[in-house]
Specification:
This protein is of the alpha/beta class. The chain is 31% helix and 19% strand. It has 11 helices and 16 strands. α10 links the parallel β11 and β12.
Amino acid sequence: MPEGESVRLPIISSPFHPHTENIVSSGSPLLIFTCQRANYLNRTLENVYASISRPQHDEENEECRFGCPIIVSEDGEHADIRTIVLSYRKKFEVIGIPLVHMHHPQKKKILRSTSASYVALARHYGWALSEVFAGKAGDSSFSLPHRVIILEEDIQVAPDFFSYMESTSSILDNDSTLFAVSAFNDNGHVDNGDPKRLLRSDFFPGLGWMMTRDLWINELQKNWAPDGYWDDWLRDSTQRKGRQVIRPEISRTYHFGTEGGVSGNQFGSILEQVKLDEKPIRWEMEDLSYLENSLYKTQYMELVTNSKFATTLDEAEQMSKTGNVRIEYDSYTQFRIFAKKIGIMDDEKAKVPRTAYNGIVETRRGNSLLFLTPKGGIVGYK
């Protein structure tokens, strides 16, 4: 590939054109989870205030746009959280965006062990999602949400986060092979990504994501994360059912919470290096037809198979200076060795490596792509 050329799948006509009539501009609230970290919530709300689309006030459209209303769901009740929510409620009211404050009742004091905290967080998630999708958040003027965008109190969003979510919403609604849309790239600390490039992945990243009402009501609600660890529960094949997630190559969210979270800042060193895109893309003007399942698979596999084949990592690094390259791994043990050497996340959940698509994990080497591919191909994850 010539130096400086960006890598995106070619655009071919398909039914998915998110800047047309398929977009539903209402019924997609933003749900923010919070507990005790008032300073983090303050930062997140200020960031949302700067990024969210303002309502349109004309004769044809008086509704809030995507991410409205904003719903802050608090686990328990804390005076400093209440003060912050009240202050931002006034700020958002000025620009025509309602801010609702819900309280998840704590029946007993939360134990501060890691496992107990995860269980408490999962219960909060399940309660809040049920309330929101049942139309019980706020007053009766809010329609039943068709989908919901989910953040936590320690997540910063990119300037085009809401445009990204809105422009992928119709694809999520209409493609039964999709599970969710995420704004996060687990390997987003690597340089030289393409800000306009979106990918499909078998791995659920979380950290700023969107799900549909249909998925919650008809599948997840009835047996929600019984053992806690809700994100790993979602990644399990029983829930995912082979469906995929849309994610950006350059993250549209940044996780800044290093203290007080239930994960104990497990991946802090890498998360702190993830690059947040700061040059907004007008996603409503982008043709995202290449994300259609069969089309994407065909084009992506061509991109991989047309890359040069290397037998060692040193060889792959050298060959990547002049174009895309791939190297095969024959086990998860070997994958982890490769991943550590090239500086990407080396773990897996439900036997799916982070960011993987059909077992393939890609990363940037300058302006080229380096693909770690399973030896002999892969049919599902075993």
